[in-house]
Amino acid sequence: MVLAGQEGASTNMRTQRTESRDLLHTRTNMADRKDESWRPQLHAFGQGSLETAKASIRRFLDLQSGSIWRDVSSELPHVRGRALDVGCGAQPFRSLFDQSVQYVGIDTIYARMHFGYHLPDTVYYDGVAWPVDDGWADFILCTEALEHVYDTDHFLAEARRCLAAGGRVLITVPFSARWHYIPHDYWRFTPSSLKKVLTEAGFSSVVVYARGNEITVACYKVMALIVPLLLPQGKGRVTAVMLRLIGIVLAPVVLMLAVCGNLSLRGRGGDDCLGYTVVAQGGEPR
């Protein structure tokens, strides 16, 4: 009788393992993904009043972008000397620098292919050696780019090489953010890992600030469910119209969440946040 009971238990376990494997096999292998099901509109480049207004509306509705703008806009106007914007994309923060600053934006030659950005005054490079002399930059800006760099050690070593003695670097990275620009999104950093990789790269006085808190993230995630309804992608005409109608009905919810989310950004930040802003100082370039 004992043996019979053991045999029955063994059969049940095998059945459960088979069902578990079947359940796994019904899901998508995310490692094979090559693109996104929905992608936000690219940041526009322009200095006109219309472009400025559009950017302001975007920052209000896109809590991730708005939180980054809040942080960098408090730092960049005080920068002097030479500024290097790494992974600059559409150069959305260039206007925040003082006119006396010598600004150079660099990005990988794959920026257009992978991320959809290409500007005539951006210096494009092979993604390995930065096209900048040793110790040239007094300030380095790197917003939402580090997660797209596979070899972060080399990237930060290049930052140290290009930074002048006593220069500063400001880096922003996402945390509670969807997998984006698939498959070129590799990392999510914590304050512990940010301090570790920057310190090991030779930076000092590393300070990490959280952008937002649990309330910000909750608002951001619910908005992320509704906004794609207003701006459907890859859908048939009838489906797109139906989704937009649903999105229009829910638009007041988006506005309410945007207000709550922006108010929450005025807080001190929390463990569950949208992302992190890092400020660090360099010594003598290596």
UniProtKB/TrEMBL annotation:
Compositional bias of kind Basic and acidic residues: 16-36
Stretches the record annotates as Disordered: 1-36
Protein origin, superkingdom: Bacteria
Pfam name, any one: Methyltransf_23
Recorded GO MF terms: methyltransferase activity
GO biological processes: methylation
UniProt entry keywords in alphabetical sequence: Membrane, Methyltransferase, Transferase, Transmembrane, Transmembrane helix
Name assigned to this protein: Methyltransferase type 11
Organism: Solibacter usitatus (strain Ellin6076)
